Amino acid sequence: MKGIELSEAFYNEYGKAMLQDGFAHIMDKIAIGICGSGSECFGYDDEISHDHDFEPGFCIFLPDESVIDSKTEFQLERAYLKLPKEFKGYKRSVLKPVGGARHGVVRISDFLKDKTGTENGELSLRDWLTIPEQALSEVTNGKLFYDGLGLMTSARESLAYLPEGVRLKKLAGNLLIMAQAGQYNYARCVSRGETASAQLAIFELVKSALNVIFLLNKRYIPYYKWTFRALRELPRLSCLEGKLEYLLTTSNEGDMAREKQNIIESLCAEIIDELRTQGLTDSPSGELEDHAYLVNDKITDSTLRNLHILCAI
Fold first, then answer.
1. What pLDDT is recorded for position 201?
2. Label partner for 142 (CA 20 to 30 A): which of 97, 155, 221, 259?
C-alpha cells in the first residue's frame, strides 16, 4: 500500500471519528492530510521506503492561536497520540511524541515557515529566486483529505508553481550552464586528459539539463534522489533519461569521450527544439548559450530581466 493511501485509510477509519467526537467545535477550522518530506508524500515510496519514517499517520493542520488556542492544540496532540499503534500491519512510531516530525498536529504557519521562510507563504521576488524548488514541492505534494477554512488549500495553490518571469530566469541560467559545461568545457577537459574534470563538467551538464527539463514542463524539480524517478513521468522530454544516465555512468576516455560529445550535441538539439516549440526562441543556432540569452530577453519584468543571468541558479 502506498503511503498516501495508508494515511487516508488510517484517517478515515480512526482519525475522522476521533476529531468528530472530541473536536466537532473546531472541525470547520482545521485541515487534514499528508504532505511535506518523504517519498510517500510524492507517491515514490516502495518496499525500500518502509525501513524508516513509514507509518500510518496524518497531519492535523491548525490556523493561528487566535483561532485555535494552545490548550486545544495540546488536547489534539494527546488525542492523536492515543490512536491505534498499528494499522494494516504497519506500526506507528513510538520513538517520537504526537506522531513524529512528519505527522501529528502542525500549525499552518509553522509548516509554511519551515518550507518557505514565511508564515503565510507569500513570497517576494527574492524568495522565489532563492528558495530551493524541493522545498516548494514539499508544500504542494501529497493530498489534503479535508480543509475546513481552506487556508492550506489556498497556500498550496498560491505556491503551485513559479511565477513565469522566475521560471524563465531559472531556465536561462541553466541553459547557459549546460552550454558552458557540455558544449564547451567537456571537450576541453578531455583534450587535456583531465578525465576527473571532464566528469565534473558532465555532472554540471546533467544537473542543469534536469533543471531545464523540469522548467520546460512547469514542474518543481524534487530532491535529487527522486529526480530521475520524477523525470520518467513528465510529458515533455522524458525520453532524454537514457542519454542523461549514459553521460553520468560512462568514462571519459578515447572513443567513449567522443561518443559522449555526440550525445551532448544531440541532447542540446532536442532541448533547443522544445524551446522553439514553446515559442521561447526562434534562433537557428545550435549553441545553447545563444538561446539562454534569448530566453532571458523574454522576461517582461525589466528588473528581473536585467539581473545577472545566473542569479537564480
1. 98
2. 97
What separation in angstroms does the CA of 208 have from each of 59, 172, 174, 255? 34, 10, 5, 25
Separation between Cα atoms, residue 119 and residue 115, nearest integer Å: 9
Rg, Å, the chain Cα set: 23
- Per-residue pLDDT of 208-226, as tens digits, reads 999 999 999 999 999 999 9
Distance (Å, rounded) from C-alpha 158 to C-alpha 115?
A: 14
Residue 251 near residue 195 (C-beta atoms within 8 A):
yes
Interval 115-143: pLDDT, tens: 999 999 999 999 999 999 999 999 999 99
C-alpha 33/C-alpha 280 separation (Å) is 38
**Phi-psi category of 51—alpha, beta or left, where left has phi over 0 and alpha has psi -120 to 50?**
alpha
For 306, the grid coordinates are 536585467
pLDDT at 120: 94
Q: List all residues 6 or more positions away from 99 whose beta carbon is below 8 Å from its beta carbon.
A: 57, 80, 81, 92, 93, 105
Intra-chain end-to-end CA distance of the chain, in Å: 37
Residue type, 15: G
Q: Where are the alpha helices (DSSP H) in the chain?
A: 3-10, 16-22, 39-42, 70-81, 108-116, 125-130, 133-140, 151-158, 164-178, 186-191, 195-216, 227-231, 241-249, 254-277, 288-297, 302-306
Contact criterion met (CB below 8 Å) for 88 and 1: yes
Residue 117 contacts residue 89 (beta carbons within 8 Å): no
State how far the Cα of 243 lies from the Cα of 241, in Å rounded to an integer: 6
> Under a CB-based contact definition with an 8 Å cutoff, are residues 295 and 309 in contact?
no
